[in-house]
Hints:
Keywords: Membrane, Transmembrane, Transmembrane helix. The chain crosses the membrane at residues 27-47, 59-83. Helix 2 packs antiparallel against helix 3 (54-73). 42% of the residues lie in helices and 27% in strands. The protein contains five helices and seven strands; from the N terminus they run H-E-H-H-H-E-E-E-E-H-E-E. The protein is elongated. The strands form two sheets. The protein has a four-stranded antiparallel sheet with strand order 1-7-6-2, covered by helices on one side. The protein has a three-stranded antiparallel sheet with strand order 3-4-5. A hairpin with a 6-residue loop joins strand 4 and strand 5 (124-129). The chain is α+β, with helices and mostly antiparallel strands and 166 residues long.
Amino acid sequence: MLAIFWYMLWASQLSRRTILIETFPELTIYLIFGIVLGFIFAGHALYSRSAKKKLKHMLEMFLGGFVLGFLSIVNIFDVYVYLFPDDVISYTSDYKIVFPGPSTGKSSRCEAGIWVKDIHTGQFKQLCTNREILFKKRRQGMDALWITARVNKLGTYIVDYQFTYK
Length: 166
C-alpha cells in the first residue's frame, strides 16, 4: 500500500511538468479502466454473497473497483512520457510571469508561475516558481526561456528551463 501511495505522489509531481498532446483522450481512458475494474469486482461479488444483500454488496464492490482502477492509472501517461522519451530537445520560448502561480494542492498555490509555450505539443503550461528564484536567475532584458524537454508521441516533459536573451 505504501508503494502505491509513493507512486501516486511521484506521478503527481511529474504531471506538474508534463504536457500531453491535446487530442489524447486521457480522461476517457481513465474512466473506462475504472468502469471495467468495477465490473470485475462486481462480478466477483455476484458469486460470493447470499441473495439477501447481493445487490448492495455488488454496488459497493463496483464503486470500490472503479475508484481503485481510476486512481491506479491517473497520471500513467505522464509517467510514460517521463520514462520513455523518444528524443530530448532544447528550444527557446517566450514566457509570462504571473502572481500567484499554479495550485499545488487543495488550498495552496505557488508564489509565482511562469507560462511557457511548448513547441512539441503547441500548448501552454504554467510552471511553479517563487520570487527568490526569479530574482537569482532572471536579469533585466532576459525575454526568453531556454527549455530542455523529453518528448515522445504522447507529449512533453520539461526537464529544465533557464532565462536567456533573445
